[in-house]
Write a structure and sequence with these properties.
It is a single chain. The protein is mostly helical. It has one domain. It is built from 11 helices and no strands. Helix 3 packs across helix 9 and helix 5 packs across helix 7. The chain starts with 10 loop residues before the first helix and ends with a helix. About 45% of the residues are buried.
């Protein structure tokens, strides 16, 4: 579909945006990590154009989630400020770095390989987070008076900002897992809210640099937004009814396959990895269901054993 001003709207990209937006609304992560490889692998869009357009689309989407968290009081503004202090300049410099090292097909190859490597890192971070969430449960104490570790926080912001500038991936899963290690007693909702707040200026800096130096395409960005905005709203509305842990596992499998493809792993090896991922996900899901059932049974027996003597006491 083409407007009067010549801007081309791709309905298939909009449909992909709808699916990705739904996944983001459902699981809280996966935006750039899913959209950019889909644009590159399924639609054959040049990696730099995919990164540029996805970043501009993210700049429009991020404030929506941040506003929700700000209204709920789940943004640690001091922490977000220190993260942004590192991420904003490094996100801009990441794009400048791309422009300075190569041109044409060379820069496209660099972006593609870097994107694949970051996706594989995101898979590892996602699995670590799922493991820690399962292990810690709700027993972790909460630190209401947070003391900012300035140098490590600046380092996290600068590292993620540079990665986002090159690949559009990193804001979300990577930031949250690093905050989880640096501030283990921070509430999960505060991690998400803080990350969304600091991501606005970071993504803004990267998007501005891509508009100036990258390969930004307005029609591609609009196509993503047409699908992703309603997708996020639909996903968020049904998120409480979905098995989020299993969906995040499926997301990790998709990111793993995409990352391997982008770093030029042979198709046969990718097929084997995908098959193993499906088997592992199925086994993990069955194990979690069985362990949950066993835990309830043990808990029930424990309750009965502790209450029975009390009933027989005069």
């Amino acid at each position: 579909m083409r407007g009067d001003d010549g801007v081309h709207i791709d309905l298939f990209v909009a449909l992909a945006g709808l699916i990705v937006g739904f996944a983001v609304g459902l699981t809280g992560m996966g935006g750039g990590a899913l959209m950019t490889p889909i644009l590159v692998l399924l639609f054959g869009i040049a990696p730099l154009a995919a990164v540029s357009s996805d970043l501009v689309a993210s700049l429009i989407m991020k404030p929506v989630g941040a506003a929700v968290h700000a209204g709920r009081g789940t943004v640690r503004w001091n922490l977000a400020g220190w993260l942004a202090l590192g991420s904003v300049p490094s996100a801009f410099l990441g794009v400048v770095f791309l422009k300075s090292i190569s041109h044409g097909t060379g820069v496209q190859t660099i972006v593609s390989v870097a994107l694949g490597a970051v996706l594989l890192l995101a898979v590892l971070a996602l699995l670590v987070k799922m493991f820690l969430d399962h292990r810690n449960g709700t027993s972790r104490g909460v630190d209401e008076k947070l003391r900012i570790k300035r140098v490590p926080t600046l380092a996290i912001g600068a590292t993620i900002g540079f990665i986002v500038g090159i690949t559009s991936v990193g804001s979300g899963t990577l930031v949250i897992i690093l905050l989880l290690f640096l501030y283990p007693r921070l509430r999960g909702s505060q991690m998400v809210g803080t990350d969304l707040a600091q991501a606005i200026p970071m993504v803004g800096a990267a998007a501005l640099a891509h508009i100036m130096f990258g390969d930004f395409k307005l029609g591609l960005t609009l196509s993503i937004l047409i699908g992703s905005i309603p997708g996020v709203l639909i996903g968020a509305s049904v998120s409480s009814y979905a098995p989020t842990a299993f969906l995040r596992g499926a997301l990790a499998a998709v990111l793993l396959v995409s990352g391997l493809k982008l770093v030029n792993v042979p198709t046969l090896a990718i097929g084997v990895v995908l098959l193993v991922s499906v088997v592992v996900l199925t086994a993990a899901w069955l194990y979690v269901r069985a362990s949950g059932r066993t835990l309830r049974e043990v808990s029930g027996e424990s309750t009965k054993s502790t209450t029975a003597p009390q009933l027989s006491t005069p």
